[in-house]
């Protein structure tokens, strides 16, 4: 894969969103992927599979009902793909909440500052691959109050996860 330089940001390499989704699909085909996490765990769990300054790849296990809470990925663009099970993404756009469902093999891309929450509302545990460019520096957390998203804080990479 070839990194591209983001216009207006000298020296910052990014992958295109299509490249990020293709990378997620590639990692999702690993036959040993399910051995990376305890799929019987009752709490959401994750493992960073690889990282450079320009690209970061995570594997996340989603027990029934597990959710991320509202957040963005600061300046990172991203993609994620449901490997097993099904996930529901709610995202904030046009000052309202929209729903998207991602069944096994389905993925999506998003830009920087994309605000969303991802939840396993299915009937079995789920597994997903997430890819970010540049590597995550943190996440802004939000609360949905009275149909308005309000920032509640910023988690910095390496401090909370």
Automatic annotation (TrEMBL):
Transmembrane segments: none annotated. The keyword Iron applies. Keywords: Iron, Isomerase, Metal-binding. GO terms for molecular function: iron ion binding; isomerase activity; oxidoreductase activity, acting on single donors with incorporation of molecular oxygen, incorporation of two atoms of oxygen. CDD domains: cupin_CDO. Belongs to the cysteine dioxygenase family. This is Mannose-6-phosphate isomerase-like protein (Cupin superfamily).
């Amino acid at each position: 894969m070839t990194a591209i330089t983001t216009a207006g940001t000298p020296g910052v390499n990014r992958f295109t969103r299509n490249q990020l989704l293709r990378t997620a699909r590639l990692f999702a085909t690993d036959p040993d992927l399910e051995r990376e996490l305890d799929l019987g765990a009752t709490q959401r769990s994750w493992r960073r599979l690889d990282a450079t300054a320009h690209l970061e790849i995570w594997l996340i296990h989603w027990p029934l009902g597990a959710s991320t809470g509202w957040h963005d990925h600061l300046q990172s663009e991203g993609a994620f793909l449901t490997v097993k099970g099904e996930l529901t993404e709610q995202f904030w756009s046009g000052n309202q909440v929209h729903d998207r469902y991602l069944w096994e093999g389905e993925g999506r891309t998003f830009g920087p500052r994309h605000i969303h929450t991802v939840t396993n509302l299915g009937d079995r545990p789920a597994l997903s691959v997430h890819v970010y460019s540049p590597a995550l520096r943190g996440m802004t957390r939000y609360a949905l109050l009275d149909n308005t998203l309000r920032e509640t804080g910023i988690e910095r990479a390496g401090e909370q996860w």
